[in-house]
Amino acid sequence: MQPSDFSRSIPERLGDCEAVLFDLDGTLIDSREDLTLCVIESFRLCGFPVPLRERIDPLMGWPLEEIPEALGLSMDAAGMEALIRAFRGFYPDHWLDNTRPYPGVREGLSSLASSLPLAVVTTKQQMQALRICDALGLSTHFRHIQGWREGLRHKPAPDMLLEALRALGVRPEKAVMVGDTFRDVLAGKEAGCFTVAVTYGTGDPAELRRLRPDAEAASFAQVAERLLRLATKAGKA
Fold this sequence. Notes:
The chain has helices spanning 32-46, 53-56, 67-70, 77-90, 105-113, 126-135, 159-168, 182-191, 205-210, 220-233; strands at 4-5, 19-22, 29-30, 100-101, 118-125, 144-148, 175-179, 194-198, 215-217. The protein is of the alpha/beta class.
């Protein structure tokens, strides 16, 4: 079964949608260039073999701790600690060199925020998520910004989604999770949310479809349009 075309259909089970959760990288913001360059530079700063860019690119949006293994590299705890330290030292000076919201994000969020509670759920550290959303002028649209912090498992575990929903006071079955990777879809399913896969980000559309998200969208404008219609249908707009 293919996911429903989110540009044409409104699933009946979401007639009473109460919140929307958004992934950040690859969903709201195009950060691939800055993330890729910063990961590569972190390997170089640590004196580790520098992976080819074409191998790093598909892993953007993954937790840094999982990237070496995904590249087939053996790294002990000390090496991983050094890599994380290098990234955290370098990235804050470069996270907005090329990063911008995707087309339609500012306008879409502005319209949606007046109708539905919105939240960000990202693998970025909490402070990074707050600062980036603020620097890009997105923070005011969200009731809650949920980044990673100690004690929470990364997506595809549902921990961060459930934490955001607790902050919003919304039950999972009343919420939509929108994201661009398998991690977002799986986390949304595990949490019990309705899942929307966007195909314009870093994720592989074929891989996303194999996971059978409830719906998909080819642009943020499609997401915003359908969620606004949903809010209107439910009397929230």
